[in-house]
Amino acid sequence: MASLDPVLDKDGVRLTIDDSVATVTLTNAPKRNAQSPALWRALTQAGQSLPGTVRVVVLRAEGKSFSAGLDRQAFTPEGFDGEPSFIDLARGSDAELDATIAEYQAAFTWWRRNDIVSIAAVQGHAIGAGFQLALACDLRVVADDVQFAMRETSLGLVPDLTGTHPLVSLVGYARALEICATGRFVTAEEAERTGLANLAVPADQLDDAVRDLVGALIAAPRDAVIETKALLHGVQGRTYEEQRGAERAAQARRLRGLAGVSD
After folding, report:
1. How far is the CA of 82 from the CAs of 46, 78, 85, 157, 159, in angstroms?
2. HSE on the CB side for 124, CA within 13 Å?
3. Alpha-carbon distance values, 87 to 101, 150, 194 (Å)
4. In what order do the strands lie in the sheet with 21-26?
5. What are phi and psi of 237, to 5 degrees?
6. Residue 30, CA distances (Å) to 12, 65, 141 in order
7. How much is the pLDDT for 77?
8. Per-residue tens of pLDDT for the chain, all 263 residues
9. Model-level pTM greater than 0.85?
10. Which of these, 185, 174, 113, lies nearest to 149 by C-alpha position?
């Protein structure tokens, strides 16, 4: 992607925008892009900062690892500067804890908005919160050295950053349960074979592969992509007959739009 002045550059997150393509980069390579509440707030802000011209958002990371997951400092009594530790959070009320987790989740929810297509370019380790951040995107292109793992259960926790729904949707309940419960690594080969990754390429070809995919997405008419994404998003909540009706309605809107006929 083009090197541009960042729209946002804080707390391990940098956002740059090149016309219709935005790039969100995790920038804390020395800590393998470990995640914190400050980073999650910066990701949320990145999503809120996108202008209407953006059609594709690329999520990438500097360094050898996409993200090693939650920064273990969260589990220390002192936590992060200016932040309540997870120990403090656990002592709060159910409502307070629920609201805090919902705030964290906001960093992971905007990637599937219907008006954009998001692509995670993943190399090296994508562990726990890192795995869930990759899962938050619509598409994943991975380097052949990628290692996904959902390690929350080994810490006595559950995946709570929106990753469970896309994981089950992509690989099915049984495989998702096995991946989460064992915390094992998922390699690039398995990720591509099972649908976790759209494409796996040698590490030195990752940027080129993402650039090609971005170009193909931008080439398609924007309104048709938005309608198609919304149509596919709704599949799980509809019966077969309901989906047929949704297809008819969406196509009618597109035909009227192409013909310049208002509803």
Report:
1. 21, 10, 9, 24, 25
2. 15
3. 14, 21, 37
4. 8-10, 13-18, 21-26, 56-61, 117-122, 139-143, 199-201
5. -95, 5
6. 11, 10, 23
7. 79
8. 444 789 999 999 999 999 999 999 999 999 999 999 999 999 999 999 999 999 999 999 999 999 999 998 888 877 788 887 888 888 899 999 999 999 999 999 999 999 999 999 999 999 999 999 999 999 999 999 999 999 999 989 999 999 999 999 999 999 999 999 999 999 999 999 999 999 999 999 999 999 999 999 999 999 999 999 999 999 999 999 999 999 999 999 999 999 988 76
9. yes
10. 185
In the chain, the amino acid numbered 211 is R
Residue reference for tokens 């390690």: 151
| Residues across the chain | 263
